[in-house]
Design brief:
The complex is a heterodimer.
Chain A (H helix, E strand, L loop, with lengths): L2 H17 L2 H20 L2 H4 L5 H5 L1 H13 L1 H9 L1 H5 L6 H21 L2 H10 L4 H26 L5 H17 L3 H8 L4 H9 L2 H9 L5 H25 L3
Helix pairs in contact in A: 1-8, 2-5, 5-10, 5-11, 8-10, 8-15, 10-11, 10-14, 10-15, 14-15
Chain B lengths: L2 E12 L2 E12 L3 E5 L6 H8 L7 E6 L2 E2 L4 H6 L1 E4 L11 H11 L5 H14 L14 H13 L5 E5 L7 H14 L4 E6 L3 H6 L2 E6 L2 E6 L1 H6 L7 E6 L3 H10 L3 E6 L6 E5 L6 H10 L3 E7 L4 H15 L2
Helix pairs in contact in B: 3-4, 4-5
């Protein structure tokens, strides 16, 4: 593994987001939706508590919609334009390319997330929140975003068509979120053995993110997101290896 | 080391389709190998396997002593590749694109700017360095791809249709560039432009239906033409029927063909021998007055058609 190559690919990909208006449009929409959901869906003021739980708790849903828009171009565009042939005949390994691209998308999402800092200032101005909890929330949200991005990156490697990549990533992401949602679990718990229900629930981003967003750092949750990222990126590399020339 | 590319029994099957089926050849330093063949013959597929983009179904490729299957990174590091259609990152400028290639190729510091500058200079793209690649004309895009391939001064160059889409002046410039680099590199170019056989190549491989149909010098390729060493001759003030029968009776002449619009005759020699001197002597000795007389070298398009169509009809 050549870390320099990963860095160069990441840098190119990251700058690529800003070469077109995509980055700015995405950041603005993300900030608007995050703000809207915090104040109107999460009832930031009405709760009367000095924390950012209303902000973080809606991130899974926000990411289901927005992350596929970032990840869809990662490989689809390379395949459509044929530049994948250029990239894969440069002296870089498939995994370096996969990792470099993923890290670029992750860094971009991280940037968008950081730009929500006015909320943090607001809550510190209005009250005295536990900033450790808020920091954990940001960290958890970033980890979860990585999970969604890894799913999206792998799926975008499957197709030349960015729209297909977007829709498929959205659906798969939705499945990963919904499997921890009350209604879905109720549906299963009426007939399935409780071990199965727990298994389904344990695969959900919601289940693992909820604790982190409340400031509870459990190694198992961290490990969960790390494994999701690893597994999907491995699958991504396998897909690229097998189908890069199609 | 003079042997740079060594290909043995290379094959690529896509399901039942044998795109490349047992291709073997090698390229030495100083050679420009022209890879000829009709569209769909397997040229690009072969190049994709040499550069490690496609995994062969069978056979081996070695570039500068590195096997493409066991050491793909070393192979990729030692070659420059212009893929078919010269793909690049459309939203980058040639400047940032070439800098990225230099980074990946491990060129850094002052050497990086020098490499980018020199590649841009040689590919003649210096005046478009800061325009997005997607806004460039086809000819410029192709030359950006070429600049990318030669940036790190690789010992081996694989160029898939480097002059496709260029105007005659640009073609000339690209050919000059390739000729200038030929001495210390091994170069494979694929083309279906036959004039490039002479303008560029020291050797040709003709491929059709996934198999090598010919491997030899441009001169040997020409010699396969039935027009090879044929002589076109026209004489003044004489009855053409009489002159034709005179030509037919000469012992070294195989066949005589009248050219269109009374422009004289084409004389085919026996066994493809050179007959220009003998013919001109005999004509003069018999009191004819020569208007024009020239030997033909052979027609590549005809040879190309014969080689590639025969293999199609012959089947597998």
């Amino acid at each position: 593994m050549n870390f320099q190559n990963i860095w160069f690919i990441m840098k190119r990909e990251f700058n690529g987001y800003f070469a077109t208006p995509v980055a700015y449009v995405f950041i603005i929409i993300f900030l608007l939706l995050a703000g809207f959901s915090t104040f109107f869906v999460g009832n930031f003021f009405e709760r009367g508590e000095a924390d950012l739980y209303p902000f973080f708790s809606l991130h899974p849903w926000l990411y289901v919609l927005l992350i596929p828009a970032i990840s869809m171009r990662l490989w689809s565009e390379e395949r459509k334009s044929g530049s994948i042939e250029l990239l894969m005949t440069l002296p870089v390994s498939v995994f370096e390319a996969v990792l470099g691209k993923f890290l670029a998308a992750w860094a971009f999402t991280g940037l968008a997330l950081m730009l929500n800092f006015p909320l943090w200032i607001t809550v510190n101005y209005l009250g005295s929140p536990d900033n450790g909890v808020i920091f954990t929330g940001f960290l958890g949200s970033l980890l979860m975003a990585g999970g969604f991005l890894a799913i999206g990156s792998c799926i975008s490697a499957l197709t030349k068509n960015q729209v297909i990549a977007f829709v498929l990533s959205l659906i798969v992401s939705l499945i990963f979120v919904l499997s921890g949602y009350g209604i879905v679990l109720d549906f299963f718990s009426s007939w399935a053995p409780s071990a199965l229900v727990e298994a389904i629930s344990s695969f959900s981003f919601l289940t693992h993110f909820d604790a982190i967003s409340k400031g509870v750092i459990d190694m198992r949750d961290m490990l969960y997101f790390a494994s999701v990222i690893t597994v999907w990126l491995f699958a991504n590399a396998i897909v690229i290896n097998a189908r890069k020339a199609d | 080391m003079t042997l740079r590319i060594d290909i043995k029994d290379l094959a690529k099957h896509f399901g039942a389709i044998k795109a490349v089926d047992g291709v073997s050849f090698s390229v030495n330093k100083g050679e420009v190998l022209g890879f000829l063949g009709p569209n769909g013959a397997g040229k690009s597929t072969t190049m994709k396997m040499i550069t490690g983009f496609l995994t062969p179904t069978r056979g081996t490729v070695s570039v500068c002593g590195h096997d493409v299957l066991t050491d793909p990174i070393a192979v990729k590091a030692s070659l420059g590749y212009l893929p078919e259609g010269a793909p690049a990152y459309a939203d980058m400028t040639p400047h940032s694109f070439l800098k990225f290639i230099a980074d990946i190729r491990g060129i850094s510091g002052a050497e990086k700017m020098r490499a980018v500058d020199s590649a841009a200079e040689r590919a003649q793209i210096k005046n478009v360095m800061f325009q997005p690649i997607e806004t460039l004309s086809k000819g410029y895009k192709r030359r950006v791809g070429l600049a990318q391939a030669i940036l790190h001064n690789p010992p081996v160059l694989i160029l898939d249709e480097p002059t496709d889409g260029l105007d005659p002046n640009q073609k000339h410039e690209v050919r000059t560039l390739i000729n200038d680099m030929a001495d210390d590199k091994a170069i494979i170019i694929s083309t279906h432009i036959l004039e490039e056989v002479h303008a560029l190549c020291t050797r040709n491989v003709v491929i059709a239906n996934g198999k090598v149909q010919f491997n030899g010098t441009p001169h040997e390729l020409e010699a396969m033409s039935r027009y090879h060493n044929a002589v076109c001759v026209a004489v003044a003030n004489v009855d053409s029927a009489k002159f034709a029968s005179f030509l037919t009776d000469l012992e070294f002449v195989d066949e005589v063909e009248a050219l269109a619009a009374d422009r004289g005759f084409r004389v085919y020699p026996k066994q493809g021998q050179q007959i220009t001197a003998e013919l001109s002597q005999s004509i003069r000795a018999n009191g004819f007055e020569i208007d024009s007389l020239y030997a033909e070298h052979g027609r590549l398009d005809e040879v190309f058609r014969t080689i590639t169509l025969n293999s199609t009809q012959g089947g597998h």
